[in-house]
Amino acid sequence: MAHQAGEQRSVPRPVPESPEARAYLQDYAAYLEAVPFPSVVLDHRWDVLQSNAAFASLFRDVSPHPTALPGDNFMRFVLFHPDASSVLGDHEARWCLPMLACFAAAVERQGQDHVLQAIRREIAADPIMEAAYRQGLPHWIRAVGAEAVEHDGTVRPLLHPDPRWGATECRIIGDTPRTLQDMGYTRLTMVLRDTRPAFVPRRTRPARRTASHLSVVPPLEA
């Protein structure tokens, strides 16, 4: 199973028993690495199964954390890592609340999952996060509608450590092939958008023609 480029996992991920599934994931990891934008494969707990070098580059300055590294569990990173706001722009409104909405939906589907239960306990242990989950989240979902739990197509701000990108935006694309879906996995890609103003060359007034011929045509000799 592939892992985030250049980084050792703090928590090992289960490997599928089927040789065909393992072979597919091995080939899919090679495909994922060829994608130029940050891309990640997640399970229903938001544990990271595969990610590419662009994903590692986006989070390269994130400090160590025992449970909330972006290459281990992306939901934990968004909700609990103290450095999350240094990469995820407008962190609370544009990242935390959508992720809490996804978590609430996951708990509704698979509330007995021990990883989801552990995340729920961590939310409850943080008074601010608990208030957001129990009070702020329902109001927010009513305001934005059912799309609150849908990541595909949303545009969110990023603070990329590479100065060539800097403060930018990404459109999240949910592009999970059927084989991954059948395994219970989801793939998300953050398509970086160049938000820098386009360079517009200064218009100059053309020089007034005073010669008796076009500049590209030599004059007739006398």
TrEMBL record:
Residues 202-222 are annotated as: Disordered. Residues 31-126 form the MmyB-like transcription regulator ligand binding domain. This is MmyB-like transcription regulator ligand binding domain-containing protein. Residues 202-211 have a biased composition (Basic residues). PANTHER family: BLL4672 PROTEIN (PTHR35010:SF2), BLL4672 PROTEIN-RELATED (PTHR35010). Pfam families: MLTR_LBD. It comes from Streptomyces sp. 900129855.
